[in-house]
Design brief:
- 72% of the residues lie in helices and 0% in strands.
- The protein is an all-alpha fold.
- The chain has three domains: 110 residues, no CATH class; 159 residues, Serine Threonine Protein Phosphatase 5, Tetratricopeptide repeat; 124 residues, Tetratricopeptide repeat domain (Serine Threonine Protein Phosphatase 5, Tetratricopeptide repeat), CATH 1.25.40.10.
- α5 packs antiparallel against α6, α7 runs antiparallel to α8 and α14 runs antiparallel to α15.
- The longest helix is centred in the first third of the chain and has 28 residues.
Length: 457
């Protein structure tokens, strides 16, 4: 019975598909005939334009001659294949009659036959399937990036994204080499060398080999305080048997790092393990970060917030911000003030945000991040979108003396120079920014437009 039903369905389906090709009145228009019709229509329009006085007779005649010349060329290249339209229709019908049933039966026997074993949801490894799809996507992304970088070899963001994608695919050696390739564009960026060293470390299955060591040493030469370089070079010391020296380095790093740094959990585990091996007492080391780590909402706060009204939830957020603000007034520290500035910016209290960033900047001399954040908060707090606060420009100018490639500073100082009529200096700053920005970014488009407007001024 089932095969009778299948046969009827197939017959109906094939009949619907081939019916248009059986119509005797079916007319096909060749490209040649279609082209001639277009030219004839253009001639008719010329005649109407002349009759209505829109176009002069002489101009119309010259256009008409050109159109007729094109009609002759088209007519000389008639498509001989059009005559075989009925034969083509017959071939299409035969193909449909054969292919549709065969393809349907093949799919049915492969996927839909009742004799096939079922795949109940409970017995399927959904996570493995997701991982497989994710793997396909990441592999496709990697291939796309490789092709793009062939034509854009100076795209730093592209090299970094490719390196991270390779690392996610566990192609660690390729990732490390890609990070090193990126250092050709940014030779003074310690993060790139740490990224390279870390992937060499993963490739060596948790061993700091010679390649990883060289990368971490280069990062340390560029920034002696870089946490990644310090952490892994301490791993190297422990690997060589100098566990006590490694432990001292990790403890120093722990004390000098913010409580919410992403590596703190791993660092704490390393310290506990090394302290156990050496018998060293670490006392209340980990308790020293407890105050800093309580600035965010507790689990009880999160649970309570779920049942609150919008006003009550806002009141709870305000209370937490006030607690952080009070603590920063009593015992200010750089990380806490930077977090306070971010929170105020999120709440759109830009004056308070600028004040917090300014206090953080006062604690750490010549800190580019704090100065740039304060400058931008002052711009956001300004009522005028046309005039940039002089304090912001002064901060950005100082930033450029410390980091000549800071994007925000290049943009806003360039705006100030253009407003003051110093076009050449504005062009110099914006051209530099244009070279730093990725070509597919909004920043690149904005600065390119500004350069063009200034040149056309």
């Amino acid at each position: 019975m089932i095969w009778f039903v299948v046969g009827v369905i197939l017959a109906v389906s094939v009949g619907i598909l081939i019916w248009p090709f059986t119509k005797k009145g079916l007319v096909s228009v060749s490209r040649t005939d279609g082209g001639l019709q277009v030219y004839e229509q253009q001639l008719n329009e010329l005649r109407r334009d002349v009759d209505q006085g829109i176009m002069g007779t002489e101009e119309a005649e010259s256009l008409a001659i050109e159109i007729k010349r094109r009609m002759l060329r088209v007519d000389q290249h008639k498509d001989p294949k059009n005559a075989g339209g009925s034969q083509t229709n017959r071939l299409i019908m035969i193909g449909l009659v054969l292919c549709v049933p065969l393809a349907s039966l093949f799919i049915y026997f492969d996927l839909g036959s009742p004799d096939n074993p079922s795949q109940p949801l409970a017995s399927r490894d959904i996570e493995a399937e997701k991982a497989a799809f994710a793997g396909d996507n990441i592999d496709q992304l990697i291939e796309t990036l490789i092709d793009r970088l062939k034509s854009q070899p100076d795209n730093l963001d592209g090299w970094i994204l490719l390196a991270r994608s390779l690392s996610r695919s566990e192609r660690y050696k390729e990732a490390a080499e890609t990070f090193l390739q990126a250092t050709a564009l940014a030779p003074n960026d310690p993060d790139l060398y740490v990224g390279a060293g870390e992937n060499f470390y993963f490739h060596a299955e948790g061993v700091v080999d010679a390649d990883a060591e060289n990368a971490f040493l280069k990062a340390r030469d560029l920034d002696a305080s870089h946490p990644g370089a310090r952490y892994y070079l301490a791993v190297l010391q422990a690997q060589r048997g100098n566990v006590k020296e490694a432990l001292d380095s990790w403890i120093d790093l722990f004390k000098q790092s913010p409580a919410d740094a992403p590596f703190m959990t791993i660092l704490e585990r390393r310290i506990r393990d090394a302290a156990g091996k050496t018998g060293m007492e670490i006392g209340t080391l980990f308790d020293s970060k407890s105050d800093l780590m309580t600035t965010g909402p507790s689990e009880e706060d999160i649970a309570a917030a779920a049942d609150m009204s919008a006003d009550d939830r806002q009141a709870m957020i305000t209370s937490m911000v006030d607690r952080l603000s009070t603590r920063m007034a009593e015992a200010p520290d750089y990380d806490g003030l930077m977090r306070l500035g971010q929170v105020y910016a999120t709440l759109k209290e830009f004056d308070k945000s600028a004040d917090a960033y300014g206090r953080a900047s006062a604690l750490v001399k010549d800190d580019v991040a704090a100065m740039a954040a304060e400058a931008f908060a002052l711009i956001q707090a300004s009522d005028s979108s046309a005039n940039i606060p002089s304090r912001s420009i002064a901060l950005y100018r100082k930033v450029l003396t410390l980091d000549s490639e800071q994007p925000q500073a290049l943009w806003y100082v360039g705006v100030a120079e253009a407003q003051a009529g110093r076009d050449e200096e504005a062009l110099r700053l914006w051209t530099k920014l244009q070279k730093l920005a990725a070509e597919d970014s909004q920043l690149y488009q904005a600065v390119t437009k500004s350069i063009g407007d200034l040149v056309d001024k």
